[in-house]
């Protein structure tokens, strides 16, 4: 029976990013497809029945006669240069939990399902939790299929190339309706458990969060031949907005605003850009605070653009309101596992499912507190404790 760390060692072979450090595994690209194949093979080895849905999510079923299935899973895609655990830990822990139950001869009364969701990070098509969003009907298929990656490939094209029929994209009428409870195990993306000196936690809430694109447009021109007072340089308002984002977020209660991605076009050292796209990731405890920050930044962006003779357009790329995980389930999980509750600022497929299905989340201690970066970590013993806890939950809920 392999440990979570042993299964993670399999996954580590795939998608190492030598340039950025960490791992880059984008949905429906070679590395992510390789990991999907790995998962399908692992599921088949355990006698699970693999059933892909129409959205690129993969379900693996342990059948049982009863209704009200119990599902668990996470994702195999990553952010650019991401850590080893965000996503894969939930997938390998699910496999390990099944191993534990099989080893003790457990026979579930309710079906159990393991699931791998597609494009959780939004690292390729810009919208996070796309697979779970499509499956739950939170994201419209027409909109999703038209999304394009940096190279101009649409989601529909990427799906087709990966052998997933985009015509079938949309609400999942096969797998999800069977699920009565969902639980996702995830590496913690902060130091909450490390501070408490506890290996495991239970998620209480997720911050409201979204992504917005500011497109500044000016006049592309020659870096040497254009006097300073004759420029309309969109890089100027864009760069000033980066510090405005930090200042604005600091005025709200425990809010976050990040610019982690910026794209000047055409992007040449001796070229004044013609346009600059800047992506804002904003998160706060309430919808009002999150939207309030973005609104303030829109006004600032307009003023900064005008000062430089530029224009700016804002578009919302994704949004998810505050999630408060199911109260009775939280109580049950904290009691069952003697684990503390903690909130998170990170988005998860479990947050999307929580709107439809009673859902809980388990966190495994991350001693560095770092995530979305190569320094993300979880000790093997804590990963074992996580898989054991997940087995406990699946056993209890599927009885
Ligand atoms: C996904 O991990 C997110 O919260 O951005
Ligand atoms: Mn992530
Ligand atoms: Mn994740
Ligand atoms: Mn996430």
UniProtKB/TrEMBL annotation:
InterPro entries: Amidase_Cbmase, Bact_exopeptidase_dim_dom, Peptidase_M20. GO terms for molecular function: hydrolase activity, acting on carbon-nitrogen (but not peptide) bonds, in linear amidines; metal ion binding. Zn(2+) 2 binds at residues 86, 121, 372. Gene3D superfamilies: 3.30.70.360, Zn peptidases. Signal peptide: none annotated. Transmembrane segments: none annotated. Its cofactor is Zn(2+). It comes from the Bacteria. Allantoate binds at residues 211, 270, 283. Binds 2 Zn(2+) ions per subunit. It holds the Pfam family Peptidase_M20. Keywords: Hydrolase, Metal-binding, Zinc. Zn(2+) 1 binds at residues 75, 86, 186. Belongs to the peptidase M20 family. PANTHER family: ALLANTOATE AMIDOHYDROLASE, ALLANTOATE DEIMINASE-RELATED. This is Allantoate amidohydrolase. It comes from Actinopolyspora erythraea.
